[in-house]
């Protein structure tokens, strides 16, 4: 009997230990600290005073982000086109895939460091993160749903009446609360643990290799005017000399109707390039080597071409093969495995 007693205790102990190990998200939530600005980042532009991140608001936003009922036929969630393992892009897809396998016209941009963004989407048109989800929810090629229907569906689910009450004090489910909760999740998608970040913050003894350091010098000379540190985008819209696409996507012009904005697209961040292929607004380049070759030798002259790519009549940035190798080595230091494996951001 005594032997059986100890066996039961041993099995019970192992079971409890296994349960603890199998629930990393719960453990992370218990350590939830809210929004914390990385020390090497500037102040965020998102107004956190109007929507402070709470544990309950974040949990609601995360559930909404992965909720397929946001789409008309209840099959597509935000997380369908913004996949964490791909730095919240749709890796391998040149353009986004919506309900009924409809194809969009642009590549799914990453969801990261959005608290430092003033404008959203490749072609602009939205300047408030709290409003941005309206576009994919209502776009025919994406979720093809109305916000009214989304809220009606959520109100039928006890799970959401409970989550909204936890986050906002009452069970009321309305547009403002819905948007604020999604924003709370998205602004917590912070990528700031790359080797580059560790070097800049002098953490863990991190230092660049010789090739990475030379690549960093090249980057600051050839790329930083558009892809400024530490976010690796200046958030602007520029014409980078791409050939006109078959659908003649005119970029920012579609939002402003200003001739000077034709074929301008938002400058993307260079963080996490290892996980976010294909590249450009329409996913036309499958590899980083293809992107560098474009900027090196394939920039096309157009009336709106950005001046940094047309210096004294010379198009492109002019890199040797050796320089491409070193620049690529530096860009690899911007990859952030901790971000794509952060259990706090994963679907439950």
Automatic annotation (TrEMBL):
One of its GO terms (molecular function) is heme binding. GO terms for cellular component: periplasmic space. Gene3D superfamilies: Cytochrome c-like domain. Its main location: periplasm. Coiled coil: none annotated. SUPFAM superfamilies: Cytochrome c. Heme c 1 binds at residues 78, 81-82. Binds 2 heme groups. It is found in: Periplasm. Residues 210-335 form the Cytochrome c domain. Transmembrane segments: none annotated. It comes from the Bacteria. InterPro entries: Cyt_c-like_dom (IPR009056), Cyt_c-like_dom_sf (IPR036909), Cytochrome_c_Peroxidase/MauG (IPR051395), Di-haem_cyt_c_peroxidsae (IPR004852), MauG/Cytc_peroxidase (IPR026259). Binds 2 heme groups per subunit. Keywords: Heme, Iron, Metal-binding, Oxidoreductase, Periplasm, Peroxidase, Signal. Its cofactor is heme. Heme c 2 binds at residues 223, 226-227. PANTHER family: CYTOCHROME C PEROXIDASE-RELATED. This is Cytochrome c peroxidase. The lineage of its organism: Bacteria, Pseudomonadati, Bacteroidota, Sphingobacteriia, Sphingobacteriales.
């Amino acid at each position: 009997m005594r032997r059986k007693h100890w066996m039961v205790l041993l099995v019970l102990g192992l079971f409890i230990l296994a349960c603890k190990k199998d629930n990393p998200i719960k453990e992370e939530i218990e350590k939830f600290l809210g929004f914390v600005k990385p020390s090497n980042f500037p102040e965020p532009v998102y107004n956190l005073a109007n929507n402070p991140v709470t544990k309950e608001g974040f949990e609601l936003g995360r559930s909404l982000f992965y909720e397929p009922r946001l789409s008309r036929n209840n099959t597509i969630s935000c997380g369908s086109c913004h996949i964490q393992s791909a730095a919240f892009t749709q890796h391998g897809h040149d353009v986004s895939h919506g309900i009924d396998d409809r194809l969009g016209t642009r590549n799914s941009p990453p969801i990261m460091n959005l608290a430092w963004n003033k404008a959203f989407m490749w072609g602009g048109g939205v300047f408030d993160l709290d409003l941005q989800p309206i576009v994919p929810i209502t776009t025919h090629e994406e979720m093809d749903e109305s916000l009214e229907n989304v809220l009606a569906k959520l109100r039928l689910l006890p799970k959401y009446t409970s989550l909204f009450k936890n986050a906002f004090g009452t069970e009321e489910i309305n547009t403002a609360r819905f948007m604020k909760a999604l924003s709370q999740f998205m602004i917590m998608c912070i990528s700031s643990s790359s080797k580059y970040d560790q070097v800049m913050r002098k953490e863990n003894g991190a230092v660049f290799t010789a090739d990475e350091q030379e690549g960093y010098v090249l980057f600051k000379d050839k790329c930083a005017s558009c892809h400024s540190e530490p976010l690796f985008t200046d958030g602007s819209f520029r014409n980078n000399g791409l050939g006109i696409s078959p659908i003649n996507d005119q970029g920012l012009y579609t939002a402003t109707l200003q001739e000077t904005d034709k074929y301008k697209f938002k400058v993307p961040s260079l963080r996490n390039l290892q996980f976010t292929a294909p590249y450009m607004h329409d996913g036309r380049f499958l590899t980083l080597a293809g992107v560098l070759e474009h900027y090196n030798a394939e920039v096309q002259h157009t009336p709106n071409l950005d001046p940094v790519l047309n210096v004294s009549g010379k198009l492109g940035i002019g890199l040797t093969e050796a320089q491409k190798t070193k620049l690529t080595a530096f860009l690899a230091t911007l990859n952030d495995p901790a971000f794509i494996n952060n259990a706090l951001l994963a679907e439950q």
